[in-house]
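Dear colleague,

Thank you for sharing your sequence with our group. We've completed the structure prediction you requested, and as agreed, I am returning the results in plain text so they can be pasted directly into your records. Please verify that the sequence below matches your submission; if there's any discrepancy, let me know and we will rerun it promptly.
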Amino acid sequence: MTYVPPSSGFVATQTIESHYSFGATVATAGLGDIGKAASPVINEIAALMVSPNPYVRREAARSLEKLAPVSAAVLEDLARQVAKQPSDEVSSFAAKAIGANGEAALEYLPLLQSKLGTGAKQFDNSLRRAIKLLESVERQCKGVRPPQRNEGK
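Please find the predicted structure tokens below.
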């Protein structure tokens, strides 16, 4: 079990106010590394998705992937990042974070599919990973078995 000091929320809040610092990036990454124990500060981490610092935004998206599942509002923030798609690391990690949310993120599957082929290779790879996860969840929800390789040969 990971111990999260009571000041963790304060660290996230301070990170929001310190958009440009190296420390903000490290603190944001650290919150994701803490794992589920950092769940109480998910909204603060999601607020960092609009930081002017691309490294803070990237670490926020990475942390949200690690802390999944997240709320519907946070999923919407991640989807906005993918939709605006500057095809950078932030969007790539946002796509992965959406995929990590499983059934709660199924409504974003069409968005992810629509962005395939519109950006850099890293972005497409992240999209494919998220799509694969969500399609698997969708099949499980419908009780459909996944397609088998070499079926019918």
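Summary note from our side: The first helix runs from residue 8 to 17.

Kind regards,
the structure core
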